[in-house]
Amino acid sequence: MSLPRYPEYKDSGVPWLGDVPAHWKVQRFKWVIEQNDGGVWGEDPDGSDDTAVLRSTEQTVDGYWQIGEPAMRKLADRDRLSALLQEGDLLVTKSSGSALHIGKTTLVDESVAAMGACYSNFMQRLRLDGQLSPRLAWYLLNNGLARTQLDLLSNSTTGLANLNGSIIGEIRLATSLQDEQNAIVAFLDRETAKIDALIAEQEKLLSLLAEKREATISHAVTRGLNPNVPMKDSGILWLGHVPVHWEIAPFRYCVDFQEGPGILATDFHDEGVPLLRVSGVQGRWATLDGCNYLAPARVAEQWEHFRVAEGDLLISASASMGTVCEVGPDVAGCIPYTGIIRLRSVSGVMHKPYIRHLVVSSQFITQIDLLKAGTTIQHFGPTHLNQTVITRPPEAEQLEIGAYLDEQLSIMANLEKEAVCAIDLLRERRSALISAAVTGKIDVRGAS
């Protein structure tokens, strides 16, 4: 899309704004705000005349509402009236445990206003005075133009990544006449909707690829690759039918496994033998991310038999299941921390390529979940693996299945990478388009 520039520009006096259309006004945000108020929280509800209080957790990072069951609170009449939301109000998250969420802004539309809700004290309400379109302000506040300023102002003013009404009011912006603002909003509504639709298509593709990945793995490790092979009832409800020549065997007979030792923080040192953490077993290969170190003498005395070897597989017992990684030469010899389970194939029984896919299959994870539900131990660990049964094809077939899944998952991974790249580019395009429109770098008045 090629759009014209305005016929005449002037220096805004603000480096990040640059030149703006000659007839636009450069000012601080506070000069277009009528009310700039913190929120309320009140008391616990008693079921009588309680009020819905919206929270920052009901705002998405990109500035949309995601309201499920709003918190009901008992508010004094004065607080309820002062914090009652109206259509056109803007709500800014001013405090959060995540820097990603600070500054996210939602717009109160007709449906939200109809709720008769108030807002919590982790949010700041901005009610504009009519000089600036609330929807145009919503575009600006959720764009890097404002978020970067908020980040700089919050850190330079308070030393902490928290906002207040004064900081928000210091944002610098360029405003145009109301008719022109309406044209910019109409343009951005139309063009961002197109981009958002393309992003949604790519996100749907990612979801479909994830489903296909799961289905491909699960089918291969329970049905095999030959669609014409005779099947038999496994006798296990969650497993169903399997190839007639496959065995159903206890996991502990096919795979050698061991959880890392429980080690106290007092055993940590600045150097020595690396202690693998869960953060290092999230990808295809184990890494030393977040690792601590142990004294070599203490390892030799107490933990030597826990050392991992090149080619070992590692899964996390404390994080969500579905990820398995392999030990490379750079990690070999390290000690896995408790919560990390080391898997080794049993020679002549089970091969590593098959194990790698088996332990992330939906059937395997479902079995673990069923075992956890039946015990008082709700985290995943060796206790559950000792009770697990698995499919065991002949060795040659295990290798064939492993190679097939490696190939298919590689193809899917490339498609996922392309989709993620497309989403990133579309989001960059969306942000750049908004920035250009709200700063007057493009003239959208005649766009259709």
From TrEMBL:
Organism annotation: Marilutibacter chinensis
The record lists the lineage as: Bacteria, Pseudomonadati, Pseudomonadota, Gammaproteobacteria, Lysobacterales
Please provide the record's keywords in A-Z order. DNA-binding, Restriction system
Report if keyword DNA-binding is assigned. yes
Classification via InterPro entries = Restrct_endonuc_typeI_TRD_sf (IPR044946), Type-I_RE_S_subunit (IPR051212)
Keyword DNA-binding found: yes
Q: What is this protein called?
A: Type I restriction enzyme S subunit
Which domain of life does the protein's organism represent?
A: Bacteria
